């Protein structure tokens, strides 16, 4: 997507995948997996914990109404 208007390195998504696997190996497709996974894990955990707390507060603190 960030190729300049001149010489293009890749013709499309499949071409980019094939060239990446040939030049760098299969594990190159997973670059950045760890930070993305950590970010998603933290976001989902904090979101749902806050969501449940807010639901509890709005229900007046009575767990039977939630």
SSE pattern, N- to C-terminal: HH
Share of residues in strands: under 5%
User: How large is the count of helical segments?
Assistant: 2
Termini, distance in Å?
46 Å
Q: Summarize the biggest pleated sheet.
A: none
Uncertain runs: none
Shape: elongated
Backbone structural class = mainly alpha
Radius of gyration: 22 Å
Q: Indicate the mean pLDDT.
A: 88
Helix content: 55-70%
Strand and helix map with partners:
Elements: H1 13-24, H2 33-58
Characterization of this structure:
By secondary structure, the chain is mostly helical. The protein has a domain at 31-66. The protein has two helices and no strands. The chain has helices spanning 13-24, 33-58. The longest helix has 26 residues, at 33-58. 0% of the residues are buried. The model has no long low-confidence stretch (mean pLDDT 88).
State the main characteristics:
66 residues; mainly alpha; 0% strand; elongated
How would you concisely characterize the structure shown here?
With 66 residues, the chain is mostly helical. It contains two helices and no strands.
């Amino acid at each position: 997507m960030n190729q300049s208007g001149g010489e293009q390195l890749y013709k499309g998504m499949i071409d980019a995948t094939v060239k990446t696997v040939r030049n760098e190996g299969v594990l190159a497709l997973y670059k950045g997996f760890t930070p993305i996974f950590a970010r998603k894990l933290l976001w989902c955990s904090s979101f749902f914990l806050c969501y449940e707390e807010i639901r509890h507060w709005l229900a007046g603190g009575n767990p039977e109404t939630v």
